[in-house]
């Protein structure tokens, strides 16, 4: 009996639900730290917003797993032939949860997310229309990402990952301040590209499974060279955005210099993935790049507030 089979047999149901909700991947939730640094307060609205975003994202990733199990792509990408991926991360593939249990979990989380975000809006000192509409749009899209309209199967996967991250910074900032800020928008885009960069490296590894089920990621739609060029452009675009913001006065003049360490690490990630051929190691490095970006963005806000 293999070690993996033994692990599957001993996996608790509670642990399996944690895996289904991807609670160990907390990187989207770090956006609230950027907002707190920008508004200089922690309020009930922000706590409710954070709890709501956790519930919404948990629902979205659970529904994604259900769809990946139904169409067979997860069976390919997490099957016995791919030793770089751990089957236990996909409870339906591992057999530690049933499809009915996963579906029930997803809709409970979705309901909780709707209630918590509604409470966040109701308790907010401001309710700018753009922030409320953005929240409603992203909530609906998160639940339609892999089921229903299947946005990720219609070419919207990469765009959604960025918009979700942007919303988790822009919307709570708007609810607290009632304002729209160009500098916060730049930070929101930089924050949103972090999860995108996890996704595009995963898609590079999962290209055969995605092509088999007709999931049109950029990696699945283009050649290996075209996909590398796309990811290279995204990598360079992060720093280009920061530099442009500094040059135009949207951000302080020193902002581009502040994020240089993250840009250097992003270049290292690209080299690791496409020059060294270590795609999954490059994906893991992406988490470090994203978390470093969050630290630098929090620092930038603290510096602005302090004058």
Automatic annotation (TrEMBL):
Pfam families (alphabetical): UbiA
Annotated InterPro entries: UbiA_prenyltransferase (IPR000537), UBIAD1 (IPR026046)
Keyword annotations of the record: Membrane, Transferase, Transmembrane, Transmembrane helix
Q: What is its subcellular localisation? A: Membrane
- Transmembrane ranges? 28-51, 105-123, 129-147, 159-176, 182-203, 224-244, 250-267, 288-306
Lipid bilayer topology = Multi-pass membrane protein
Q: Which domain of life is it from?
A: Bacteria
Classification via PANTHER family: 1,4-DIHYDROXY-2-NAPHTHOATE OCTAPRENYLTRANSFERASE, UBIA PRENYLTRANSFERASE DOMAIN-CONTAINING PROTEIN 1
Q: What name appears for this protein in its UniProt entry?
A: UbiA family prenyltransferase
């Amino acid at each position: 009996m293999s070690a993996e089979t033994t692990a599957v047999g001993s996996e608790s149901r509670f642990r399996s639900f944690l895996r289904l909700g991807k609670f160990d991947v907390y990187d989207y939730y770090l956006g609230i730290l950027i907002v707190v640094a920008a508004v200089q307060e922690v309020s009930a609205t922000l706590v409710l917003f954070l709890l709501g975003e956790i519930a919404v994202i948990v629902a979205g990733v659970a529904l994604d797993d259900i769809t990946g199990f139904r169409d067979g792509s997860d069976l390919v990408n997490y099957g016995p032939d791919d030793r770089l991926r751990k089957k236990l991360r996909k409870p339906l593939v591992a057999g530690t949860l049933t499809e009915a249990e996963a579906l029930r979990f997803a809709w409970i989380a979705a309901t909780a997310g709707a209630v918590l975000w509604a409470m966040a809006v109701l308790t907010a000192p401001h309710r700018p229309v753009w922030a409320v509409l953005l929240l409603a749009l992203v909530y609906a899209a998160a639940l339609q990402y892999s089921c229903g309209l299947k946005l990720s199967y219609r070419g919207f996967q990469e765009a959604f990952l960025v918009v979700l991250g942007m919303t988790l910074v822009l919307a709570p900032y708007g609810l607290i301040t009632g304002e729209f800020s160009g500098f916060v928008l730049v930070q929101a885009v930089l924050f949103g590209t972090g999860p995108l960069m996890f996704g595009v490296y995963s898609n590079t590894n999962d290209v055969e499974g995605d092509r088999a089920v007709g999931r049109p990621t950029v990696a699945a739609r283009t050649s290996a060279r075209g996909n590398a060029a796309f990811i290279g452009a995204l990598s360079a675009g992060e720093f280009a955005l920061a530099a442009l913001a500094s040059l135009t006065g949207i951000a302080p003049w020193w902002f581009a210099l502040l994020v240089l360490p993250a840009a250097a690490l992003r270049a290292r990630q690209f080299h690791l993935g496409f020059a060294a051929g270590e795609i999954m190691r490059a994906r893991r490095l992406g988490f470090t790049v994203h978390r470093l970006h969050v630290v630098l963005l929090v620092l930038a806000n603290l510096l602005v507030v302090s004058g």
